[in-house]
Automatic annotation (TrEMBL):
Descriptive protein name: DNA-directed RNA polymerase
Stretches assigned to the DNA-directed RNA polymerase N-terminal domain: 3-62
Catalytic activity annotation: RNA(n) + a ribonucleoside 5'-triphosphate = RNA(n+1) + diphosphate
Source organism: Plasmodium coatneyi
Keywords per UniProt: DNA-directed RNA polymerase, Nucleotidyltransferase, Transcription, Transferase
Family, as annotated: Belongs to the phage and mitochondrial RNA polymerase family.
Source species taxonomy: Eukaryota, Sar, Alveolata, Apicomplexa, Aconoidasida
SUPFAM superfamilies xrefs: DNA/RNA polymerases
DNA-directed RNA polymerase C-terminal domain boundaries: 213-606
EC number: 2.7.7.6
Physiological role: DNA-dependent RNA polymerase catalyzes the transcription of DNA into RNA using the four ribonucleoside triphosphates as substrates.
Amino acid sequence: MWRNGSWYGVIHMRECCANYLLNNAINSHIPLNHLPMISKPKKWTHSDGGMILLKNNFIRCNVKPLFNIDVCNLERIKNIVSQIGNVRWKINAEILDLIEYAYREGITIGNIPRKQNYDLPNGPSDMGKKNVEDIKQYYLLREEISRLNKCLISERPTFLQKIAVAKTLKNCEVIYFPHNIDFRGRMYPLSPHLHHMSDDICRSLITFHDKEEIGPRGLFWLKIHLANNFGKDKLNFEQRISWVDANLGNIKKLSENPFQHMDFWNMAEKPWQALSVSIDLTKALECPDPSKYRSNIPVQQDGTCNGLQHYAALGRDYDGGKAVNIIPSDEPQDIYTVVLEIGRLGGGISSLGGEGNSIINSSNSSSGISSSSSTAKATSPCRGELAQYCFQYDLLKRKVVKQTIMTICYGVTSVGAKDQVKGKIQNMISKVLDKNAINQLSQYIANYIFESISEIFKRAMVIKKWFNNLSKVTNELNIPVTWLSPIGLPCEQPYRLGQRILVNTPLQSVSVISYQNSLLHKNKQRLGFPPNFVHSLDASHLMMTAEKMVLENNFSFAAVHDSYWAHACNVDIMNKFIRDSFVTLYDEPILQNLYQSYQMRLGKHASRIPAPPEQGHLDVSLVRNSRYFFS
């Protein structure tokens, strides 16, 4: 292949061969070392653990840290990770059969890919007689269908691998998912294809092995879990229960014959998990005493923009804590709606309609621009036009701002935020605005989100700036950013430039990159520190909660970073552990400890590190009474 003035060797598979492998041989091409286990994993010790025969590193990392991990006491962490790997799981055979049926019949609900590619449209026979706009639309359609087919090239095999693993383990009495951790302490299953950290399909395919009586509160939590899967998680608990009760007829019909009730099923945000819970809830309601029903469905409790929850607690930020449900409230607070509400977007288009999903013209909307001096820049014709576009095309929706708000605390850049917004609004306005206008509008909305978050989380932004000052000093001294997480894990950012080694072959030259003993990637060291430090905090919070659940009480428990799972009968006690662990975590002076560790580490350069930012007056212990902190 000729590209950029050079020839590159490419191995290309013919379509007939690809189709054969896809349809006939996929089961035989799953690496056995990537399967979940059917016997209890080995306990993590000094040298090994997890899988019995295959060696895995406890900390997954391509670059060996400068510190000697062998001298660190990680016994507490290894015990927690080992016990998480001992949680017993089972394949949900009923859901597996329904997913296979949907794929065979071409029912593409819930990310099930098409079995066949889309047919490319034939060009009109009288192409020469068509006007320019018709020809343009034809090529745009052809380009879009080609793009969808390219996506299917990866989506279809990935889906089939998951199904193949599930079919392989379908009749196993029990399966296990051994875990290890990354350099921040976040836990991950060793099995890459089928596990609870994957998509909606994978999560619906596995349940806890052990069935537990749901008890007096279990029915409540099954209903809450079902409502959450239908996207009702922004309602208060009473409204979620009312929604489920009002739809019990539809829920029963869905559980009995889902493919005959697609209209209701398509309302779900997570359709396959929603179906799994619907079946379980229907069985519970059919019992003479629902509290005696034995369920093995993992009920999930999710944090409210968890990164911002940690930032608010770090800075004792009262306003930020209120926006992310650290402070008790009768109604769940929605940070995404709060951002929309405080945004002026130039001042004229400010009030929100409906449930905070769209912009409504304010009393000054005829001009579209505020005369306020604080927004003088927005009075230029270009920015004024962008502000009007946001109103005219109804762009300021929750789904547009959500991803960017979630990733701001994890270090998303201005360019990254613009691309996120662009991905959300492109389909909404691509037919009425050109690419240049869409780019400008995306950047405009991204800037608006940054400004709004800075207004709500003032102390969080100050802390981020302080983190940047720390990484700036370590970069100048050519040492990686390191810290000790609250759970006791020494963390070192592994970002290095890499040394390129050229290996010549008769066909071409092959580049091999080695990261050992290479120079620091200073930009990644700087950008990565704020999100990685916060990830180490949420990992510590998770481990502290897991310690109470699996080590002290032997409950079945799983988590996906900021989503914690338990049996319906144990959700109340899990919620108590979540909040208690969060309070315990922030009883420690985390920023002061980080500052002192850098004072000791940098020695004569310690004076270059500024003192930690001043904290606010948020009482983190209030979270114990917050219903919607995790919900």
